[in-house]
Design brief:
It is a single chain. This protein is α/β, with parallel strands linked by helices. The protein starts with 11 loop residues before the first strand and ends with a strand. The protein folds into 2 domains: 143 residues, Rossmann fold, CATH 3.40.50; 111 residues, Rossmann fold. The chain is 45% helix and 17% strand. The structure holds D-glutamic acid. D-glutamic acid binds next to helix 3.
Length: 271
């Protein structure tokens, strides 16, 4: 007799300062096709990458509580900036529910394959927090870390200039000092940067390892669900909900570029 597989069909809560976190949702959908996802994007208050730590902590607490009220079984901080300065806020409120983030995933992947020198790129708040370097040094104190804030990348990606001379020039300018340190790995420490991967590959050359925080996070999510016995069984098809605080102009187009598929219905909450 076939015994039906038992699983946890509750959704995973994924959140970001805006729509950039859809790169993480995309990677999760590919890696964990049976899992339902509730995505929260704070589109009314994006960008976070240039805001103060106190403000980001406050916003993060609000979003965490909102998702917990929706009965999620795991929280995924898809925003590097929130992960850098407010991961402790999420853990403190999660009440035992696993909470993972892009920095933990990216740092682990960077350490696992580096021969000694790692470059990090991210928003000014992420880079100033030193969160990647701290975590990398906890994992392996012998590694050297070189960081560079790339504030222009977020607006360039949102503009859709993924393969544009202005973006190429900007990348060359930002990456010059990091490349001069002869790093062997480069962590794309921002939700938006995976979309620049082809252009960055051109700029950095073929031998440098590019670490995409979206796919490393999906891998960490899969492992965490497995370890905690929280994986879905597939008894019901995966469902996806997208909740945002504002629906700005061109939202659909930009969102679908990040997600790599159609977004369907988008819900808006009034905060
Ligand atoms: N989601 C942010 C990050 O990954 C980028 C956008 C923002 O500045 O809010 O750092």
């Amino acid at each position: 007799m076939n015994v039906p597989a038992s699983g946890d069909e509750r959704p995973i809560g994924v959140f970001d300062s805006g729509i950039g976190g859809l790169t993480v949702v995309r990677a999760l959908m590919e890696r964990l096709p049976l899992e339902s996802i509730v995505y929260f994007g704070d589109t009314a208050r994006v960008p976070y990458g240039v805001k103060s730590v106190a403000t980001i902590e406050h916003f993060t607490a609000q979003i965490t509580d909102f998702l917990l009220e929706r009965g999620v079984k795991m929280l995924v901080i898809a925003c590097n900036t929130m992960a850098a300065v407010a991961a402790h806020v999420v853990t403190a409120r999660a009440g035992g529910i696993p909470a993972i983030d892009v920095i933990e995933a990216g740092a682990r992947a960077a350490v696992a394959g580096s021969r000694g020198r790692i470059g990090i790129i991210g928003t000014p708040t992420t880079v100033n927090s030193n969160a990647y370097a701290i975590r990398i040094h906890e994992l392996n104190p012998g590694l050297r870390v070189y960081s560079m804030a790339c504030p222009l990348f977020v607006p360039l990606v949102e503009e859709g200039w993924l393969d544009h001379p202005v973006t190429r020039l900007t990348a060359q300018e930002y990456l010059r000092p990091v490349l001069a340190e002869e790093v062997d790995s480069l962590v794309l420490g921002c939700t938006h940067y995976p979309l620049l991967k082809p252009l960055l590959r051109d700029v950095v050359g073929p031998s440098l390892r590019l670490i995409d925080s979206a796919s490393t996070t999906a891998e960490l999510a899969a492992q965490t669900l497995q370890d905690a016995g929280l994986a879905a069984s597939g008894a019901t098809p995966a469902r996806y909900r997208y909740i945002v605080t504002d629906v700005p102009l061109r939202f659909q187009t930009i969102g679908e570029r990040f997600l790599g598929r159609s977004l369907g219905e988008i819900e808006r909450v009034d905060w």
